[in-house]
Amino acid sequence: MTIIDAQDHVFGRLASHVAKRLTNGEKIDIINADHIVLVGTQESALNKFRPRHEMRALGNPSTGPKHPRTVEGLARRAIWGMLPQRTTRFKAALANLTIHAQVPAHLKEKPAEKIQAAMAGFDRPHVYLKEISRLLGAKR
């Protein structure tokens, strides 16, 4: 099992690296998902996510479509989109993925790796995934 510390990693770069490793059969735990970085202003990030959350069904709004609002859900959905769909590897890869917003107690003592190719350079405007999640209406 591989533990990846996602603090200060760029959202899309991290998702693509994790998706590639999941298709190779690795089991991956992502910790500190609250501190994943979206490059760009807060307004541009919200303009990307908010239209999805405003969609409703004409007949019964509770039937969907339902889009994630939590940090874990947003990260899982990004990785989900980068996996090969409609294959047997797809379900197996998603089953091998666990995402945690912070560091859980059972993983505190274990070493976590960082993906250098996905690290953020803070010379551009950026926003953390937990802020986007809060603005989308996540309950925690």
Structure in words:
The protein has helices spanning 11-23, 42-54, 71-81, 88-95, 129-136, and strands spanning 2-5, 28-31, 37-39, 97-99, 126-128. It has 140 residues and is α/β, with parallel strands linked by helices. It has one domain (2-9, 11-136): Ribosomal protein L13 (Ribosomal Protein L13p, Chain: A, Alpha-Beta Complex).
Distance between the termini: 28 Å
Largest sheet: 3 strands, parallel
Kindly report the average pLDDT value.
Answer: 89
The share of residues in extended strands comes to: 5-15%
Overall number of domains: 1
Per the CATH scheme, the topology name is Ribosomal Protein L13p, Chain: A
* Oligomerization category of the chains in this entry: single chain
What overall form do the CA principal axes indicate? globular
List the total number of helices: 5
* Element pattern in H and E: EHEEHHHEEH
CATH architecture designation: Alpha-Beta Complex
Poorly predicted segments = none
Per-chain topology:
Elements: E1 2-5, H1 11-23, E2 28-31, E3 37-39, H2 42-54, H3 71-81, H4 88-95, E4 97-99, E5 126-128, H5 129-136
In short:
The protein has a three-stranded parallel β-sheet with strand order 1-2-4. A two-stranded antiparallel sheet has the order 3-5. Helix 2 packs across helix 5. The chain has helices at residues 11-23, 42-54, 71-81, 88-95, 129-136; strands spanning 2-5, 28-31, 37-39, 97-99, 126-128.
